[in-house]
Write a structure and sequence with these properties.
By secondary structure, this protein is mostly helical. The chain has a domain at 3-102: Helix Hairpins (Orthogonal Bundle). The chain is built from four helices and no strands. It has helices spanning 3-28, 32-56, 61-91, 139-147. Helix 1 runs antiparallel to helix 2 (32-56) and helix 2 (32-56) packs antiparallel against helix 3.
Length: 148
């Protein structure tokens, strides 16, 4: 196999992996920041594939398309940041489930799963033994474990 084809396959595999990781992250997560980052990963996977095809065919079409993708990604990041900040100031949360009021008027709310109540109660934190104090050991259990 020629080295150009092997290089193309390697770049296409990397692009497909980036796109797949971004797609899984976009579908699996509900945090808006993570979802926008996964969309950016998907765009970068497509960009790697376009650059690989452009290099394979010895033309600049793929690289020029990637420049446009980067410009669109930069605009998307700016708009997404502004939208996330605005919605966070309104709701105080980045979970998409809390933003049901953004749907159209005649649409019922989508319930993926119920939102758990935030229960405030006394928190107990684990404690460590104080420094310099040796914990008591049960000698019989220690001897029995060493024999087994």
């Amino acid at each position: 196999m020629p080295s150009d084809v092997v290089l193309l396959h390697n770049y296409l595999i990397v692009g497909a992996l980036l796109f797949g990781i971004g797609l899984v992250g976009f579908l699996a997560r509900r945090n808006m920041i993570v979802m926008f980052l996964c969309a950016e990963i998907m765009l970068q996977g497509v960009a790697v594939s376009l650059v690989a095809w452009g290099r394979f065919h010895n033309n600049w079409g793929g690289q020029i398309m990637v420049i446009f993708i980067l410009a669109v990604a930069a605009c998307e990041a700016g708009i997404a940041l502004a939208m996330i900040l605005m919605l966070y100031h309104r709701s105080g949360n980045l979970d998409i489930v809390f933003w049901q009021n953004l749907r159209e008027e005649n649409q019922p709310p989508h319930v993926d799963r119920e939102i758990p109540e935030d229960v405030e109660g006394p928190r107990t934190w684990p404690t460590l033994t104080p420094a310099g104090v040796e914990p008591e050991l049960d000698v019989e259990k220690t001897l029995h474990r060493s024999k087994v």
